[in-house]
Amino acid sequence: MAKLIDLSQTRRRISRYISEPAIKVLSRTGLSPNTVTVIGLLWSVGAAVAIAPGYLLLGGILVLVAGLFDILDGALARAKGQSTASGALLDSICDRLAEAALFCGLLVLYVGQSAHLEIWLTCAALVGALMVSYIRARAEGVGMKCEVGIFTRPERVIVLALGLILNQVVIALIIVVVFSWVTVIQRFVHVMRQ
């Protein structure tokens, strides 16, 4: 359990390191945290549009840019003192839509190629990713904490982006599938123990 906590703390430290300089600039603009959230979603949709016809390198770069906006929206909300429940809900919805868009882009690509293994891997990755988020949301909806797990959205985004950039999407999908479902089990067990 200590290793999982360390991973979570490491993730937060890296996010702060990346976001702090950008937040100083964004705080001076008129952009609201919700606008940054929607911009991140649009970048993800752009990535999906690039992935579908096979522009994997471009898609991977766009996934990384979208991931940067995902880091910045919450940090900007905290910096401006604009953290709200509605903003958190919008962020959560946009995160799910962004991730679903990326997997749908992959599905369009692989259906066009009749690549059956890749289609099944993409479906398993999509369902695993959604379940990781759903278990946390459902647990928090009934008053339980559920921040455990070795493979959350930032890890999925990074692995998928690297797979696209390096043209190793199948390996990336296998990693996402395995570790997403491990995280589903970790979260389920954690909630059941509470």
Molecular structure report:
The structure is a single chain. The two termini are 15 Å apart. The longest helix is centred in the middle third of the chain and has 28 residues, at 85-112. The chain has one domain: CDP-alcohol phosphotransferase transmembrane (TM) domain (Four Helix Bundle (Hemerythrin (Met), subunit A)). It contains seven helices and no strands. The protein is mostly helical.
Keywords, separated by commas or semicolons:
Four Helix Bundle (Hemerythrin (Met), subunit A); 0% strand; globular; 7 helices; 194 residues; mainly alpha; single chain
CATH topology, by name, is: Four Helix Bundle (Hemerythrin (Met), subunit A)
Radius of gyration: 17 Å
- Count of all domains: 1
User: Count of DSSP helices?
Assistant: 7
What's the story with the biggest beta sheet? none
